[in-house]
Amino acid sequence: MKLASDEKIAAYTKAGWWGRKTYYDVFRDAAAACGDALAVVDPIDRPDFLGDAPRRTRWTEISDEVERTAAIIHKAGLRKDDIVVMQMPNIVEAVAIYLACAKLGIIVSPVPVQYSGFELRHVIGAVSPKAVFAAARFKDRTLAADLRKLVDPAIPVFSIGPSVAADGLIDLTAELASAEAASTETTPREGEADDCFTIAWTSGTTGMPKGVPRSHNHWLAIVPASYAAMELQAGEVLLNPFPLTNTASIAGMLGNWLYSRGTLVLHHPFDVQLFMRQLVEEKVTATIAPPAVLTMLLKQEEVLDQFDLSNLRVVGSGSAPLSEFMVAGWKARGVEIVNIFGSNEGVSLATGPLEAPEPAIRATRFPRFGLEGADFSNPMHECVHVKLVSIETGKMIEAPGEEGELLIKGPVVFEGYWGSSDSEQADVFDAEDYFRSGDLFEIDGEDPRFIVFKGRAKDIIIRGGVNISAAELDTLLDGHPKLAEAAVFGVPDDVMGERIWVAAVTEPGETITLDEITRHLMSHEVAKYKLPERLVPVDALPRNPMNKVLRWKLKEMAEAEPA
């Protein structure tokens, strides 16, 4: 299933930005070169959340598992362009499923383990999967058995991990133990790298999560953004604490692992003590982490000093603004922090030591990739173009002093949301095919080669690095009988980046509690991480002349609330 037009494919291929290799091709080349070197390592706490022992696989072993997984999938009747939904924690099997599907031309739609019935029904209805892959359990939840109830009985559901008693599940763990690698076609076909590889999910501004289709070329084009900014090298030991469902993991970790031909150490769910333990025990050289965690560790020097981090060279961080204190503090300990601003759609800004040696610059600014006359070492500068456009007038901003929406164009950018109409496409891209990111930036007044993040134009809350659509929750709260109207909004938080609060206007004569609101959302099977944590009663929601809720005003009102 090609995503881009023939004209775009031809142009990007001629420029050398797209090629003929898929993720599987890059993996196969790496596996052939690395032999018995350590390849993928499971989280330490796999016994706690899944119930079986952590695995340590070598390149030869993961290669064999990929081939056997592909044979099982092919035997089950899945073929090129079929879509599968995958709900799994970061474990070795998830990596193997990705690569097996890449071999067969099957499209993977990964969803976070936090997704529950509400989100899963939406995803299943949107992509009509031909199969499902899920962990047998994740802590106290039975993911595979729960998904079995949501899909048609004819759709195979593969369960991974110790069996959970449930009808209609295929035990992939047992199947792998007896399967033999099949001899299936592995020669790249014309256009194969341009085919859709994944449909990830991102919270949109209109309510429900949106599917983001990306081809192998889309993904492989974005990998160099972090590879170059983090100055990664051959044989890196990469620790991945982010779920294998978005750009940070699929490109920043899985892609960089394939490019460096090193070791991918998996971590999930995030736990600071286990994260630090893995950094030491696995002799990790590069990782990614939320800025709040990195700041917290710096402020606990007596704890940090207990860990030998002499192998750690670089950490990518983002999803919330970085501080000069954090970047400088880690630099003093011999660890470089790289500021990364990315999205599933293809935003790919990165500021590393080569671009900005000074911690103050690196913490707050991003290169204006594609700017004529600028000189950046990151290869994104050659293929990606960004511009700022006024929200009010739509005119391009070319001087400091005015905030504008970031628009981006290039081989890293997707082609549009899954199932979107022509009119919806027009809202996502401008007339020159630039993607409207919804993020507000300003040109740096001291060095116009850089831009500074100012906030978000779209109604997105980022809690713990995960995007949450405020509009999605608003829509569900519309149905509460005690509420006249309500709006969810994010409040800055040192640990989580943002916390979720809800402003509520009750019907005349009614009162409502936070517990009633969260129980209402839970009745729709909303994932727990989306539940509001505080209620702010208001007489009316602040709105602009177009009747749009002013969430920034709600934040001001929240700041006036007693702690």
Written description of the protein model:
There is one protein chain. With 563 residues, the protein is of the alpha/beta class. The protein folds into 3 domains: 1-21 and 217-458, 3-Layer(aba) Sandwich (Rossmann fold), CATH 3.40.50.12780; 23-33 and 50-187, Rossmann fold (3-Layer(aba) Sandwich), CATH 3.40.50; 460-559, ANL, C-terminal domain (GMP Synthetase, Chain A, domain 3), CATH 3.30.300.30. 32% of the residues lie in helices and 24% in strands. It contains 20 helices and 26 strands. The strands form 6 sheets. Strands 2-1-11-10-12-13-14-15 form an 8-stranded mixed β-sheet, with helices on both faces. Strands 16-21-20-19-17-18 form a 6-stranded antiparallel β-sheet. Strand 3, helix 5 (92-104) and strand 4 form a beta-alpha-beta unit. Helix 2 packs antiparallel against helix 4 (59-75), helix 9 (216-229) crosses helix 10 and helix 12 (291-298) packs across helix 14 (324-332). The termini are far apart.
Fold-level CATH name of the largest domain: Rossmann fold
Q: What's the CATH class label of the largest domain?
A: Alpha Beta
Largest sheet: 8 strands, mixed
Shape: globular
**How many β-strands, per DSSP?**
26
Percent of residues in beta strands? 15-25%
Low-confidence stretches: none
What fraction, in percent, of the residue positions are helical?
25-40%
Query: What's the N-to-C terminus distance?
Result: 53 Å
Q: What characteristics describe this protein?
A:
563 residues, alpha/beta, Rossmann fold, GMP Synthetase, Chain A, domain 3, 3 domains, 20 helices, 26 strands
